[in-house]
Amino acid sequence: MTTTYKSIALRGVAAGAIAGVASALVQLLVTEIPIRAALAVEEAREPAGDGHGHAHGGEGELVSRGAQVVGGMLGVVVVGIAVGLVFATAYALSKRWFVDRTPFSRSTAFGLAVFGAVALLPWLKYPANPPAVGDPETVNHRTALYLGVVVAGLVIVWGASRLASRLTAQSQPVRVTAVLLAVVAAVAVVLLAFPAPPDTIPADMPVTVLWQFRLSSLAQLATLYVGIGVVFGLLVDPATRRAKADAPVAVG
To answer: What pTM value is reported for the model?
Structure first.
């Protein structure tokens, strides 16, 4: 049953929903703290600014801060479901790789790899900034750079998996060492090849708020991507074992 794409996709959606809820809770309980501190810094600038500041807690705001928080949490859950479906699809397409591993082990390793490619690597080059940091006119440029690093990270993961498959005849220490060295070299090239972040950090932004936001954002992403890998593995592993146990044994 679990060998069908539909059953795998449903488990991916469920894993994405669960990990999305967990990530949304991290956003509410952890990331929201530095966001409020950064918004206070931004609002403190407005009397001396040019009149184009954003209202986050005043009477003139179009959407209340509470509604923004709830909407953001729902958005995280929706993203988690979408990522879970993509994750399950990629898992199904890569079944021929690492066949010597259990479904749980493969799923967890896959989740870690996705986290490294689409969250950790971009974070190392372009760490997330809280509100009150960044020039609105550079948004498109920053987005393009960020997506470029994400694509490079996915290429690194794909290349590492292909290299590991080609080295299956080698011993595990040799295979693991070769893949790790290749990944480290590729990551170094990406970090050096892409330009530095275009925006500077304003002097009035407390360093503690900046890094609390960056670390909590990374923790939120880790909860989402690694969580999908772990939950999907928990959902697919027992069912896969039952399917194999129920499969007819070839005679002759």
So the answer is: 0.83
Per-residue burial over 9-41, b if 16 or more Cβ lie within 10 Å, else e, is bbbbbbbbbbbbebbbebbbebbbebbbbbbeb
What are phi and psi for residue 98, nearest 5 degrees?
55, 45
- Contact predicate 218/129, CB 8 Å: no
Decide if 109 contacts 101 (C-beta within 8 A).
Answer: yes
Domain count, the chain: 1
Nearest to 78 by CA among 32, 5, 23, 144: 23
CA 37 to chain centre: 24
Q: Does residue 85 fall inside a structural domain? A: yes
Task: Identify whether the C-beta of residue 16 lies closer than 8 Å to the C-beta of residue 181.
Answer: no
Residues 171-194: tens digit of each pLDDT: 888 989 999 999 999 999 999 999
d(C-alpha 222, C-alpha 111), whole Å = 9
Compute, in degrees rounded to 10, the torsion defined by CA atoms 235, 241, 242, 246.
150
Amino acid at the residue 78: V
Q: Which of 78, 74, 87, 80 is nearest to 12 (CA)?
A: 87
Structural domain of 35: 5-47+65-246
Q: Is residue 226 part of a domain?
A: yes
**Closest to 114 measured CA to CA, from 19, 195, 240:** 19
In a domain, residue 30? The reply is yes
CA distance 30 to 220: 9
Q: Which amino acid is at 198?
A: P
